[in-house]
Amino acid sequence: MARYLVTSALPYANGPIHFGHVAGAYLPADVWVRHRRMCGDDVLFVCGTDEHGVAITLQAEREGVGYREYVDRWHQEIGCTFERFGIRFDAWSGTARSPHHVEFSQRFFRVLLERGFVFEREEEQWFSEASGRFLPDRYLQGACPECGHPEARGDECPKCGAWIEARKLGDPISLVDGSRPVLKRTKHWYLDLPKLLDAGLRDWYEERKAAGAWKPNVVGYVDAMLADLKPRPITRDLPWGVPVPPELPGSEGKVLYVWFDAPIGYVSITEEWAQAQGAPESWRDWWMDADTRLVHFIGKDNIAFHVVVFPGMLLGQDADPTWQPASQAPIEPRSFVLPWNVPANEFYNLQGRKFSTSQGWTLDMDRFFERYSVDAARFHLVLTMPETADSEFRWEEFQTTNNSLLADKIGNFASRVLQFARKRYSGRVPGPATRQPLLADHEALRDARAAFARVGDELDAFRFRAAARGLVQGFADLNRFFDAMEPWKLVKSEADDDRARCAEVVERCLAHLELGSRRLAPFCPDAAARLRAMLGEAARPEDAGRWGGEGPDQPPTRLPEGAELGEVGILFRKIEDAEVEEEVRLLHERAGELRA
After folding, report:
1. How many Cα atoms sit within 13 Å of 307 on the Cβ side?
2. What is the per-residue pLDDT across 382-426, written as a single tens digit (0 to 9) for each?
3. What is the set of domains in the chain, with CATH numbers?
4. How many angstroms separate the CA atoms of 58 and 292, rounded?
5. How far is CA 137 from the centre of its chain?
6. Which of 266, 351, 438, 482 is deepest in the core (most CB within 10 A)?
7. Strand (E) positions, 342-390?
8. How far apart are the C-alpha atoms of 375 and 529, rounded to whole Å?
9. How large is the greatest C-alpha to C-alpha distance in the chain, in angstroms?
């Protein structure tokens, strides 16, 4: 049994999340966690909202609401979205609500400062004379120094993706008051990433790279970043955030930059969870035990922070006695674990464009979940996940996934086998008259088990699309077996051997259907639970959370003869063409693009 600490990128409490976010960082983590638990591993799944930063202060001020009130609203809405998708975290909190987040963030900062990985520097920063305040990067807009895009932010260009040094922004304006700011000297603190690179960050990254841990998109991004790595400022002049440790001269009015304190939220939220479990020190067992495998699920825009910045921050705490429990006698200090894998995804778009809630180019959550299956949504997002390149949600493709794959392959096999058993065997598991296996291990059954085995192998390797295809293939092979054996003919035969063979066919189909229900569970947990209810006594409750080792050479064990089956229902309803046409029309209408 292995132990995994799994995180999904903290969603920013500055607006709703959409299907693109879910497909990128949250659903793959949920599927992977469910699979690992079914394999018997010990898993802790941690997330929460990222509740500090310039964008939050800017938007809250525009709306005239308090910062805490603003992030509370989005924390609740984002949590509701996860509930709708069946995404379940063990620990769910936020960086402004986790009770020890300030303490943990300041402790990270102090240790890095004491060890020489943080330094202070006086610099020129844009200052609004109209508002009498320094302007953090996202309070600015101007021309990108790399590509010339006129609406670049002070930290990043939305067109070319370049990280921007705010002082180099061309012809900037203040987004607070529209004034032309001036440069004025102030003091800030920097994280010395090049020094951390030489202190072990590069060795760790290259070791994990040699082990094949990183996806190609991660390697390309990080290699380019390390070739020109520079210190990065980690403080801002803001009224909302984690204060810079107050004992430092010049710290008044300054907070830790959101990309510094946000990943520390993984640690502080774990500690909050440990407190709630009644074992407040147990967070160290997850973050400081060398046997823990730390896995970050993120989108590609977070690669820098999870493969370079945060590992550097963790490395900079190496075996520092500051992290020793005060209640214990002196012990050998432990180090934080570094990421075991960071399976970053690319971007997930909608119907040929990027998701944009502000422009109406998004899916209405209320409408969607009133009309369509959450399991169908989960499965389609996995099947079209942006693993190595950008991908997209298209209504027509969602219909195909739901109708041709889920309904016709999985739902159809379940229905025809269960209905046949109900009609011909009074809704019970049949047994062969001779109690001897009359049916050889048919090729289609071996193929089905091989496909189901690939589901686990692909999930282990973070290849979610291939895992979903393997699941569908397994059910396609089971349908092929049912068709080849023609039990509807065998059951009408007057020959005892034929009738016994029919019973064997149905029992084997039911046994493989039970296996399929377990393979379906990480992707479509509700549908898998309904399927097991249809199987009734043929699906033992204690097996529901067990992955099992069935494969080509290991068929499912024989089901108990006479076990009563449950009521047969529809797993996935078909989506009509007219529904899809209406959804596409409404999408364009919401975006103001409905054409006559």
Report:
1. 31
2. 999 999 999 999 999 999 999 999 999 999 999 999 999 999 999
3. 3-109+257-345 (3.40.50.620), 116-237 (2.170.220.10), 367-543 (1.10.730.10)
4. 39
5. 28
6. 266
7. 348-350
8. 11
9. 97
